[in-house]
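Lab notebook: predicted structure, single chain.

Context: the supervisor wants predicted structures on file for every construct in the current expression panel, including those that have not yet been purified. This is the next one on the list. No modifications to the sequence; it matches the entry in the shared construct table.
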Amino acid sequence: MTNTMFFNERYFKVGEGSLPLKDTKVEDGDYFLLTLAAIAREMDYHGLSDTEVCIAAGLPFTRFGQEKAEFKEYLNPGDREFQYNGKEYHIKCSDVFLYPQCYAAVADRLGKLPSELLIVDIGSKTVDIIHTRKHIPVESDCITIPSALIQCMANINNVVYRKTNRTLTEEQIQQVMMYGNGHIQIRWCRLSERNWQYLQRELKQS
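Prediction complete. Output recorded below exactly as produced.
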């Protein structure tokens, strides 16, 4: 029953691999189910099975105004019962708070940073680049790139497969990204490094 959810008379397996890239988070129920799983894990950590919750989530900076109303409605579970890993949970959501990705991570410390900055948030599905002047975002200079780590890792695996007839796990690719090695053959490591460096060059040119 590990990472298994029972919700609306159906069973779901949660957390086995990354979700495919989508235009928005509300296209299907995947993100909602991941949210329920995260709530269940947090409740389990605190020894709770029945509680009131408040959800905080993020949206890409440049699409925040356009998507926030629909996403807030989508993300609010209201009064729900579900099972996760064989355990019963009951939640009542009091509110959903949404924040612009990238900016929310540094908003509380901008006053301590230089007045003009270029802030880059490399996420799994998008890269948000925010230009601030006098600690305020210059919206006309801010962009969201709909291609980030998931796409980068898929590209790396495609290259490795074409060259070696092998594939790498996400964990192995992440090890190369962070430390320059992933306890894998040197040839695979070099192929991964080259494609990771290509993404970095693309970001610098954005």
